[in-house]
Amino acid sequence: MSAAEGPLVVGVDTSTQSTKALVVDASTGQVVASGQAPHTVSTGAGRESDPRQWWDALREALHQCGEAAHEAAAVSIGGQQHGLVTLDAHGDPVRPALLWNDVRSAPQARRLVEELGGPKAWAERTGSVPGPSFTVTKWAWLAEHEPDAVRATAAVRLPHDYLTERLTGEGTTDRGDASGTGWWASGTERYDEEVLAHVGLDPALLPRIARPGEVAGTVHARDELPFSKGTLVAAGTGDNAAAALGLGLRPGTAVLSLGTSGTVYAVSTRRPADPTGTVAGFADARGDWLPLACTLNCTLAVDRVAALLGLDREAVEQGAGVTLLPYLDGERTPNLPHASGLLHGLRHDTTGGQLLQAAYDGAVHSLLGALDLVLDPDADRSAPLLLIGGGARGTAWQQTVRRLSGRPVQVPEAKELVALGAAAQAAGLLTGEDPAAVARRWGTAHGPVLDAVDRDEETLARIAGVVSDAAPLLEREPNKD
What we know:
This protein is an alpha/beta fold. 35% of the residues lie in helices and 19% in strands. It has 18 helices and 24 strands. The strands form seven sheets. Strands 1, 2, 3, 5, 13, 14 and 15 form a seven-stranded mixed beta sheet that branches. A seven-stranded mixed beta sheet has the order 18-19-17-16-22-23-24, with helices on both faces. Helix 1 (51-65) crosses helix 7 and helix 12 packs across helix 14. The protein is globular. The termini are far apart.
């Protein structure tokens, strides 16, 4: 282990597929140790995981960090948003968690929007129009389909809350992750009792919302983890808010995150309320806002197309005018929960590489369609887009974003930005600093800038035309017979 200049902190990213832990020097941002362990996710109609495997993965990742984890003075958890974790009176999971990309609650989402005043009322109340990703719709689905599980539930948590509570023994969350539930009112920054009453959820089952910069507790599960006595635990936050901290984002800078899901977001000082539902009006982890648009289909969908074609993910070819909408898991932006993938414009001379490029184009088109709505009106639209996530270092992803956005692209050299953001939050407990300022001091957003190229208006128009013309197919609910 390299000698550290200051105290050590641990930042954790518990994502859909795995848990990663970084031990970071709070003075310099140097990563002195790291660990990672996988999760499993169900296939079929739903997307579920047993929360206990997140804890096991956290333990394994921390033990891989060795003595450095024992020396850490503070820890914070960044986690996948929206997931519904139901616990019994003993703190054990009642059933597997319903994850963010489980879209079985689409009917409940539509019904809740209609029953509580429509999209505009929801946007004004919670900052967002809930879709099937939101936790409130998953609770409504559970109440309808598994009432015994609801009756057995003594506590409701989000994924990062679950791990934080296992660390401290106290039920806490933060405004960033709470803002993605659908039962947190963005105007008052409190749980919305009318929404909770409507879906039959007792607010006593929910965790306390810790303030930005507040200590959530100290590690009490020391027999299972390599932490020393008195290790501080921060409130943690959702993965996108953690990545915003990890980049040290200032208002107006746009981020495209290319992961299992694709997201575009920016920090804003204005409380968002988009009645179309395209932009989720999330809070950030500091006290500002994080308007965000999310697509369900991003790197995994494109990689699946590459696998079906037997191609390397970089084996793209331009041309052919073919359109591929990679909505393999339904879609959130645009809001098409029942959609499947759609291919249009196939010819005898279309190559596999052109089909693969079309998959990239379809995924990026969905993200860029929401970019102007995410940014404040006075934001600089010529500034570089920050490209992060698992796909950010892929040449095909970089070039597709450049070509379809017409903007320069900056690729931060720092990796694991969710875990780094959590580490910055933990460091803020020790130094009293704004975690975003900590990350800026660490230089996490530094990286090469790729110059802008002319925007490919022809491809953008063609994809938009196919989405519009295919609306009856994309919106059709599956045959339940």
